[in-house]
Amino acid sequence: MKKILSALLASVMVLAMLAGCSNQPSASSNPPAESNPPAAASQPAENNNNNESTGGKTITMWSMWSSGEPQANVISAAAAAFEEQTGVKVNIEFKGRDVNKVLAASLEANENIDIIEDDYKRIGTVYNKFTYDLTDMAKAANYDSFSYACLNNQSIKWAGYLNAIAEQPQIGGIFYDKDAFAKAEITAEPKTWSEFLDVCQKLKDAGVAPLAQDSAYCDFAFYHTLVRYLGEEKIEELDLNGGWSGTAAEQAAQDIIDLVKAGYFVDGAPDEFPSSENKIGFGLAAMVICADYVTAEVNNNTGTQVNWGLFNYPAVDGGADNGAAYMGANSLAITSYSQNPQEAFDFIMFLTTGEWGQKLADDAHQIPADSRNTAPADLTGTIETLQAAESPMTWCAGLSANADIKDTIKSLCVELFEGKYATGADFCAALDALY
Hints:
Helices cover about 45% and strands about 15% of the residues. By secondary structure, the chain is of the alpha/beta class. The chain folds into 2 domains: about 30-170 and about 325-385, D-Maltodextrin-Binding Protein, domain 2 (3-Layer(aba) Sandwich); about 170-325 and about 390-430, Periplasmic binding protein-like II (D-Maltodextrin-Binding Protein, domain 2, 3-Layer(aba) Sandwich), CATH 3.40.190. Strands 1, 2, 3, 4, 5, 6, 7, 8, 9 and 10 form a 10-stranded mixed β-sheet that branches. Strand 2 (about 55-65), helix 2 (about 70-85) and strand 3 form a beta-alpha-beta unit. Helix 9 packs across helix 11 (about 250-260). The chain is globular. Residues about 1-55 have low confidence and may be disordered.
């Protein structure tokens, strides 16, 4: 009988200790760190998903990564560390890149999901009615102080409130070889078009082709120039209705034609991807217009380690949107019906900030979601460019609005970089001929 009573008393003591762990106060004003683990918020008993192995709670995350990928490995390790520190189990389901094909229907059916991971625009526009308002929790975590306003503002614009936390920010612009710039005695990154032309000439005089260009990205490269002159809304209007001739699009096209005529593109451009961008790794070209993943592509493809830098696309005289930069993110959101939203938010902060946020940046070779962390060496300048960007630019969305002709427009952009148009007016006339 004494043995039975002793066992019962021991069980009561264990349950009391676990209950004490589950009733800690919610997240403080500082982001979670390993030395100060995120606390689990109290929830009514009927709302808790029980984790029988720890006596705590369980939250479920659907990830866009596949098991074995660097991101997936970090997320799994972070989940294990989070459970050890908080008693909250994180069940990760790695769905792969096609998660978007099943996510909307699963959310509609209120499947057992607390955290979703996908492109931040889909989270903001497709899934927003299923997402939790993170405004108050983000404010308590002082999220604005270490995140990127440009990404947060887009989330708020699409959903009407902050509904996503960036996990993998992305930035585009002109990535360049710092050693090539040093060889040409270029000491400052160009900010205006005239300064950019000076840089191109100095590189050419130093024996390095200024620009690489693959055909796969010709529309993306030209889109940068178009946005400077027209802004994205006007581009979309023209894409849908025509009327390119007589607009600033003629000057945008003329700028590209002038680059071609000046001999500022490396031999063979526009090449088949990734032949042209690889020429940066071989020391034959200095700059390329692309997104941040180009650095890893070139390094891996050529077996070299380019000393990368980044600057935003240069401003043009009288431009409509000189501050825009391409940006995006794979992001995390909490379902509106989650039974444990505070625990879910705490895990998101645990994963994307501090030690684990840095590990994501290092192991997955990406821009850190926590601006206090450090970008990989070949992504130097990406944090600063994201922070300074005044407005986000999409990936050619304005040139893709008209589905019937978007592929033809991309082909015309390739022809533009091939030098097949004598003037910008000729190029715009070719565009208008599509309508």
